[in-house]
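Open question from group meeting: does this chain pack into something compact, or does most of it stay loose? Before anyone orders reagents, we agreed to write out a predicted structure and look at it together. Recording both the input and the output here so the notebook holds the full record.
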Amino acid sequence: MALLMTIAAVHLAIGFQADATTSPSELFQRARTAYAKGDSATALTLMEKVVAVEPKNGDALGWLGFLFLRAGDSEKAVPILERAITLKPGSADIATNLANALQGLPTKSPAQQSRIQQLFEQAVKINPSASEAYTGLGFAAYRQGDYAKALIAFRRVVELKPADAAAHLNLGLAYMRRGQDADALSSCKRAITINPKLTAGWVSVAQLELKAGRATLALAASSKAIAIEPRNIDALLVQAQAATTAKRDDEAQAAYGVIADIYAAPDAPASLKSDASARYNQGVMLVRLNRLADALAAFELAAQIDPKHADTAQNIGTVLYSLGRYPEALAKFQIAADQDPKSAPKWRNVALAARKTAESSVEIGALRKAVALDATDVVSRQLLAPVLANSGRSAEAIGLYRQLGTIQPKSAAPLVAMATLLMKQDQLDSALTALKDATGREPGNAVAWNNLGVLYERRGQINDAIASYKAALKANPSDADAKANLARFGKSTTGTPKP
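Structure tokens returned:
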């Protein structure tokens, strides 16, 4: 939020008392009269004539510099005000205007930056009631990140101008930077009490309320700001954020949509035209509303603005996948993964879409890339291992299950799956080791116990098999496989012989 400054230059209080019959004096008075009537252009022209005749007239130079500053021409104002302050070093107004003119230069040297602060300090030393100088001093400190010093200056402005809404707002913004949010809110509320049309005040209140977790109050304040300035981006943004927090997703998407339209306007700055964030966020909100067609349109517009944004392509793919448009989803997921090749989730989405389109080589390739990215990625390994096993790549699948067993030291599932493949390859000893480890990890895992029984049975260790089937039934009395396996040995589920 930018600070507010109500006056860019100080209207000089002049003590010029030249003979009223002289031409310079008449011109001077006519210039002041023109300015008082709001005709700054005429005032400037007349004051230039005074200075041309009396180049060492400090009052006229001060006024001329002031008028150039009011006209927004700091480059012309600076040298004139430098001459004026040399002639009138005790003028707080000239010092203030010179500081503001230096501040208005497009580029400033470190020496000029230092001079700006010195001039404001000089002005308040000369005149402790120079509110504009204190405002400038606060601005200078604020820009330099010295918020403690800015607070001191802005507090003084509020003391001098207690009915000035901008002064209270500037104080509030300095408090915000200091993290003194309660004081900031109080000052900003005072600003909008004085001037209910102060958009920046309502925006600041909304931001502070949202930060405090009061989303409903933030929405109310942002709505006030938008009522004053319907296309105020700061107000719309905090409204969108507050609506998101309050789970009022339709309001959030609408606000993001307005922001995106402003960004896309023909007269918008290039920096806004290239910002896809608002349209992207609108798409996210529309997904939450299950308005998938609208969400897809929003994401596609975001992609036009920023074609290299991987998450946009990812979200387009997700919407297409949800709509059952799997080949298109696969293409978008592939773009997203190519743009962000170090993202395992993006490669997983490529694999899931490829599974829907029966492109097993693409699925396996994408999952292998995901696995290679992260040695602790459980999900990718869980997806890849069965695909490899079903495609005849048992050795690679076993390796993945072994990795999962290490990554998940308390889980029996990867060891059970690994043991199943080992048994198919007649690697019974390795399978036995895996299943014993599985039952040790999860003594209540019926599947692990049942599979251990099957393995013992294959090895001819019938008593061990029966004991394992009983353990499976103890873990899960309704386990049909364990019941059937135990029944083949003429044993009841309690282990007593059948009659």
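Observations to bring back to the group:
Residues 1-22, 493-499 have pLDDT under 50 and may be disordered.
Residues 1-144 form a domain with the Serine Threonine Protein Phosphatase 5, Tetratricopeptide repeat fold (CATH 1.25.40.10).
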